[in-house]
What we know:
Elements: E1 2-7, H1 19-22, H2 27-40, E2 44-49, H3 53-66, E3 70-73, H4 82-89, E4 95-99, E5 122-125, H5 130-141
Parallel strand pairs: 1-2, 1-3, 3-4, 4-5
Helix pairs in contact: 2-5, 3-4
Amino acid sequence: MKVLVLNGPNLGRLGRRQPEIYGTTTFAELAERCVQWGAELGQEVEVRQTNHEGDLLDWLNSAADEGTPVVLNAGAWTHYSWALYDACAQLTAPLVEVHLSDPAQRPEEFRHTSVITPHALAVVAGEGIDGYRRALGLLTAR
Ligand code: DQA
């Protein structure tokens, strides 16, 4: 089974970005682990990251057309992008929302809303990079 692990803005700077919140693992390391974890689950995982919202919308539209399951960390777009809401609504295979931190527990009010959750099979938050492993597992466990 092919699985897309899609990451939104600022996640390319993992390891250097606010490590006290997001940890010290780099994005390249995260991507490598996702591919390994997926292989253990019999999945063919492709990991992508973009700082450009249109890229993410295009990837989600293709995933909808191809029936590809998605693990999505949309970063800050999670909290306000109605275009992302609409793209997630069109997905034809399961979607798992993942966050390294737990946005619901963070002080900024804007993090307490997600446009993705209404379309997600599950939300994994606050488990750091291991959350991606659990998210991949949830796709296979169905
Ligand atoms: C995040 C949480 C978001 O609120 C934030 O904007 C991010 C990362 C996380 O993985 O914890 O960029 O999605």
